[in-house]
Amino acid sequence: xxxxFVFFLTFVTSITFAQKSFQGKATYMSKTTMxxxxxxxxxxxxxxxxxxxxxxxLEKTYTLTFNKTASSFKEEVKLEAxxxxxxxxxxSNGQGSIYKNTKDLVMIEDVEQFSKRFLVTENMEQxxxxxxxxxxxxxxxxxxxxxxxxxxxxxxxGSIFSRRGNAKKDSTKTKDVKPAxxxxxxxxxxxxxxxxxxxxxxxxxxxxxxxxxxxxRMTMLCTEVAISxxxxxxxxxxxxxxxxxxxxxxxxxxxxTEELKARFQNRGGRGGxxxx
Length: 276
Description:
- The chain is α+β, with helices and mostly antiparallel strands.
- Helix content is about 20%, strand content about 35%.
- The protein has one domain (about 1-165, about 180-265).
């Protein structure tokens, strides 16, 4: 039954694709929760104050521009109120984007990290989504559930600047022991009513636009979709920055974040120069 269901959705999607050019824009809002205990003992008032200061880092708005085969995902950067800005290492410069091409099976992330701009290129392998029969309404769209478990390669900034990171390492542990892979459980809700195989952030590979993503502490929800039948929407492939593979970029990030962690811990987790 499940195979028949997936075949039907794919069949309907392919017919719609063949009918005409399909393009549009989707707005997403993301919310991320944070383990406040990593910052040490705080009163409830102090927790609220810290959460307010980090609001721009934990709550963001994005726009996904898409057509039949390509999409571009970009954060909408707003002016921040005085005193309400998040940490400088979590702030966007408004230039980053994630470009996906489901025809050529290539994804390019345009990102500025550690004062350098990178073009992170990788092949889009078919994600091993587990298709479900469960449905729910999100706005006017009927959405279907899909789940995925994958390795979590996201930067854990919280662990870098956590006071718990100052604890001494167990000298009995050998350097040869590799840490276990951190896995991430993902739940997606997609709708075949919008026949594009893409979604927010780096997610793709379902027979319809991904309307909602729940991944770890992050939830991203589509709040508006505008389908354009006349205006031609420009989706440009990023071209400025140092070209690196995903593996190369991950190695660069690992080295730099270890340097940041060492600098922070050498100061005892206390204030000092702002890390940019």
